[in-house]
Amino acid sequence: MRPEVTLAIDTSAAHCAAALLFRGREVEAFEEMATGQAERLMPMVEALLAGQGLGWPDVTLLAVGTGPGNFTGVRIAVAAARGLALGLGVPLVGVTSLQALRFGHEGALACLDARRGAVYVQGEGAAALAEWEELSGFSPAFTVGYRADDLALRFGGTVLPTPSLVLNIARVAAAGQGGAPAPFYLRGADALPPSDPPPVIL
Amino acid sequence: MVLTLLGIESSCDDSAAAVVRSDRAVLSSVVEGQAALHAPFGGVVPEIAARAHAEKLDGCVARALAEAGVGLADLDAVAVTSGPGLIGGVLSGVMLARGIAAATGLPLVGVNHLAGHALTPRLTDGLEFPYLMLLVSGGHCQFLMVSGPGEFRRLGGTIDDAPGEAFDKVAKLLALPQPGGPPLEAEALKGDAKRFALPRPLLDRPGCDMSFSGLKTAVLRARDALIAEHGGLRRQDRADLCASFQAAVAAVLAEKTRRALAESEAPVLAVAGGVAANSVIRAALQGVCEKAGVGFTAPPLRLCTDNAAMIAWAGIEKLQAGLVDPADLTARPRWPLDAMAAPMIGSGKKGAKA
Ligand SMILES: Nc1ncnc2c1ncn2[C@@H]1O[C@H](COP(=O)(O)OP(=O)(O)O)[C@@H](O)[C@H]1O
Question: Looking at this predicted complex, what is its ipTM?
Answer without folding.
Answer: 0.96
